[in-house]
Structure formats: structure tokens, C-alpha cells
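Work Package 3 committed the consortium to producing structural models of liganded targets before the mid-term review. Because experimental data for this complex are still outstanding, the team generated a predictive model from sequence and the ligand definition alone, so that downstream docking and mutagenesis planning could proceed in parallel. The input record is reproduced below exactly as it was submitted to the modelling pipeline, together with the SMILES string for magnesium ion.
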Amino acid sequence: MWSDTSVRESAALSPSPEASPAPAPTKATPMTGFLKVEQLAKAFHAEKPVFADVNFTIDKGEFVCIIGHSGCGKTTILNVLAGLDTATSGHCFMDGREINGPSLERGVVFQSHALMPWLTVRQNIAFAVKSRWPQWDRSAINAHVEKFVALVGLSPAIDKKPSQLSGGMKQRVGIARAFAIQPKMLLLDEPFGALDALTRGTIQDELMGIVRETQQTVFMITHDVDEAILLADRILLMTNGQETAQGYVPGGMAEVVVNPLPRSRTRAQLHHLDGYYDLRNHIVDFLVTRARAH
Ligand SMILES: Nc1ncnc2c1ncn2[C@@H]1O[C@H](COP(=O)(O)OP(=O)(O)OP(=O)(O)O)[C@@H](O)[C@H]1O
Ligand SMILES: [Mg+2]
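The resulting structure, written out as C-alpha cells with the ligand in place, is given here.
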């Protein structure tokens, strides 16, 4: 049976990095477990699983970020949640049903934008919208597509092909496409990685606005600690697999950090909030000293 106890869940953070890594475990608020990940493991090479014994839940309407160094298996977990890859062992459930293939109930933004190069921005998004609502007529599809393209500030480029767009613009098309199908869950793999700082901030604000308005459930990979603190209700900290004196230890979920900052936080006032630096230090300290510690 699945249990949350294998992952330390910390809400109260230690006041200084020196005091890490032992924030007192606290009782988490009751979880509805809209998404449940149980005992997940993935091994591309049998003797060295990338990660093992990964357990976590995500509540409906919750925004969860995952942070860990390159290669620890973040994208692999997201691909399993998307139904695009299978785990070596373990199970994932969404809304009470086991995930065993791709579904339009989950919108994915890939680490690379994954657009169809022969289609325009409009056609790329319309393709997904048509699949989601096959009964819609052309004008309903068009109106819907235009709304979501406007949301990511790409209206002037709507009839351009991906080859005519910058990396950041392509990434925004991917974001618009994922939102446009109004999925039960969004799976975002470093969705802002290719964006310049200004656009990144704007899109982060937009994402936060839409997610709160639509009570969207989100699982997002990021390397940006501030981005995680701004957006996430909880932050999953993941370790890399590593060789130790006792042999190989697979990567896994080291800790779940509950974001104690008020949900009304904004990018501009984030660093003025009580608790911000404690939270930031705790995560940075994890990445520097524990994520790959032997
Ligand atoms: N298809 C595959 N075949 C073999 N090994 C793979 C495959 N896909 C991923 N891996 C390996 O699994 C590990 C985890 O990869 P993954 O892409 O999940 O990492 P990640 O945490 O998303 O890293 P990054 O932050 O760089 O995106 C890496 O060591 C990678 O080389
Ligand atoms: Mg990745």
C-alpha cells in the first residue's frame, strides 16, 4: 500500500543552511491524491536504476514543482505521468485511474517544444483542439486557438511556421497548445527554459493567473529555485543516482518542501516576504550539498 512516510515533508524550514538537512517532519494536510505515484522506479540499465521508490501525490488544484540536478530523472518521471514512457516498476494514477498511455486529459509542455514543423502556429494548436473536441466547427476552433495564442502574446505570429519563430516563441506555442486543450492536469518540463528573463516573468505571471483562475493541477520541472518558490505549493527535491562505498544508490525523492509563503505572492514582492530566504537557502543547500552527496 502506498504511504507518504517514505518522503520527508517539511513545512517549517531551518533558519540557516548550517542547520540543514533536518527540518522537523510535520504532518501534511490531508491529501485527496488526485495524482498518485506509487513505488515508481525506472532502469534503462537493470543494474543501475535512474531512480527507485519514488512516491508522491498531487492534490486537485495543486501546483507542484520538482527540482534536481541534470540526469536525476525528472523528465523520465514526467514522461511516465504523460503516458509516453513506462516505469520499470510502480504505478501512477490520475483521478482514480491508472495511467497507461497518453491522454488529452493531460497537457504536456516538452523540454524541447515538439511542434509540427510543417504546420503554422494556428494549425499546430488547432490540431490539438480538434482532437480534444472533434464535434467543434471550424469557427469555434479558430476562436479558441486565437484566444490561447493571444494569451502567450503570439497573435502577430499566428500564421507563421515554427522555423520562422525564435526558440522562446516556439516554447510559448507549446504552452498555448497545452493550455488550449484545458486538460485535467498540466505537465510542464522546464517550460520557460528558452525564454529571456522579461518574457519569462510575464509568462510566469500569466501561468500563475490562469492556474489559479482555473484551479489547474500542475506538475512542473524547473531548474530555477525562485520560479519554484513563486509558483509551487510544494517543491519535490530529487537526488541523483550515485556510486557510494556501499555500491550504487538509485536517485529518488529526498524531501517534499511545503511552500509556507502566502499564495497571493507576486514576483515583485517575493524576496520581501518573511520566510523567503529560509526557503531559498534550504533548496539551494539541498542542491549544493545533498542532491549528489555520497
Ligand atoms: N531513452 C533512454 N535510454 C537510456 N537512458 C536514458 C534514456 N532517457 C533518459 N536516459 C537517462 O536517464 C537519466 C535521466 O534522464 P532524464 O532526461 O529523466 O533527466 P532529467 O532529470 O530530466 O535531466 P535534465 O535536467 O538534464 O533535463 C539520464 O542519465 C539519461 O541519460
Ligand atoms: Mg529533463
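Reviewers should note the following from the model. The longest strand covers residues 35-42. These observations will guide the Year 2 experiments.
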